[in-house]
Every structure is written in structure tokens, then in C-alpha cells.
Design goal:
Length: 90
Amino acid sequence: MTSKRRTNDLIVSQILKLCAPGASKTRVVYQANLNFKTVNPYLDNLIKNECIEAVHVGSRVVYKTTPKGMDLKERFEQFQSAIGELYACV
């Protein structure tokens, strides 16, 4: 039986999509089906690469996708769509 693990690019794509309107870490964890230990490296790397930003709203931190992140998200979606079409032909 083969493993159905998600690739890092699929996880990054999901996080970018979730953060587009703004999302708390808890929302990202639950909706991207991650845990608090595994989500931190993704968020840190996306912040470091200026794809998301951490915005302080009162005492909360909300993660928002930047224009650079939105461009990357759209490219991921185009790629995933193209791959889906390829597999549909097989």
C-alpha cells in the first residue's frame, strides 16, 4: 500500500490560500490538517520569503498572504490544474 502523504508544495499552497483573507495559526492548523509542531516551520519559511506576513491585531497574530504569496498561490493552482489534466488523460 502506498502512502498518501501530501507534498510540501501542496501544504504551502493550502496555507497561502487560507491566509489570503487572514487566518490565525489555529485556523491554519485545523483547516490545513497540520499540527502546531509542524505548522511553525511552514509559517516561518513563508514569512522569511515574504509570502505571508504576521499582522498583530490586538493581542492576536493574524497571518496574511502578501502580493508575492498570492502570485505563488496562483502559480501553484495553475500547476495543480495542469497536473490534474495530465492524469485525467492517462
